[in-house]
Amino acid sequence: SNNVDKFKGTITLTGNPSGGTFAGTGLTGNVFDPINLDTGSYTITYVYTDSFGCSDSDTLILTVKFYGPDY
User: Fold this and answer.
1) Confidence band (pLDDT; 50, 70, 90) for 45?
2) Both ends of the chain: CA-CA distance in Å?
3) How does the average pLDDT of the chain come out, rounded?
4) b/e per residue, 23-52, with b = 16+ CB within 10 A?
5) CA-CA distances (angstroms) from residue 36 to 1, 55, 68?
6) How far is the C-alpha of 22 from the C-alpha of 51, rounded, in Å?
């Protein structure tokens, strides 16, 4: 999984090939924002359909962690 600091801001996701759709908790479009989420793991799914109607998907696991404030 990929660790994400709850308080370090948003993460913009990019799918390949482009033109697909992201889905999952904490997402608005392709932007993951962990600030309102509990710590733990979140599965993000990317689904792409080409011009011939063939589709595929991939998943990414983001783990929200609390590392504490910077001093």
Assistant:
1) very high
2) 27
3) 93
4) ebebbeeeebebeeeeeeebebebebeeee
5) 20, 32, 15
6) 18
C-alpha to C-alpha distance for 46 and 15, rounded to whole angstroms: 7
* Residue type for position 21: T
User: pTM for this structure?
Assistant: 0.87
The order of strands in the sheet holding 27-28 is 11-12, 31-32, 27-28
> Are 23 and 36 spatial neighbours (Cβ–Cβ below 8 Å)?
no
